[in-house]
Design a protein that fits this description.
The protein is an all-alpha fold and about 190 residues long. It is built from seven helices and no strands.
Length: about 190
């Protein structure tokens, strides 16, 4: 059963990865670059400041830093524990894939990019939901695009992304609850 699921995962990766073309490679490299999301993060922090005040902003910076460190380190723990080779290093896959990424580390289960972007989307979307009703949807679309970019550039399987986004969503919700607890108890 698990072997069949992994085989489907490989086939879906090869299909999705090969949909790309050199024309779009540059755009997807920008999307997958972690620094490309900084303007969005700055905008979200500004909105938190405008709607909740400077104390909430300071707390949000600390909570988000802890959340990203948490999701990133758990992702690294899973990678070193499961040792699932990335598609760009896997026999029988790397020869069929388009590697667009400038580098390819060893292991990929689960995706830190997918986890971090989903955690940020859920956290900010929930925190700002009373003020911006559709923001959550936009942030979820952004998170899915970031996750897909990892398939496009050839470094993650779809299951790496699905598990990363699931973990990130749960983490974002948990850190949102932590933020609310601290804010209500010590700041508000």
């Amino acid at each position: 059963m698990l072997e069949q699921l992994i085989e489907y995962d490989k086939e879906l990766f090869i299909y999705l990865n090969n949909l790309g073309s050199e024309t779009w490679d540059g755009l997807w490299l920008v999307i997958t670059n972690k620094l490309s999301s900084i303007p969005l993060y700055v905008l979200l922090l500004f909105l938190i400041y405008k709607k909740l005040g400077w104390r909430a902003l300071v707390l949000a910076v600390f909570v988000v830093a802890a959340m990203i460190a948490f999701t990133d380190q758990i992702s690294n723990l899973f990678k070193s524990s499961f040792e699932r080779p990335r598609p760009c290093r896997a026999e029988g896959v790397m020869d069929l894939a388009r590697l667009v990424a400038p580098r390819c580390s060893l292991y990929g289960f689960f995706s830190g990019h997918a986890s971090n972007s989903m955690a940020a989307a859920i956290f900010a979307g929930l925190l700002l939901r009373p003020y911006f009703k559709n923001l959550m949807y936009l942030l979820l679309v952004w998170s899915f695009v970031v996750a897909y970019s990892r398939i496009y550039v050839g470094v993650h399987y779809p299951l790496d992304l699905l598990c990363g986004m699931t973990f990130g969503g749960l983490s974002g919700f948990g850190f949102y609850k932590l933020f609310n607890y601290i804010f209500k108890k010590y700041i508000a």
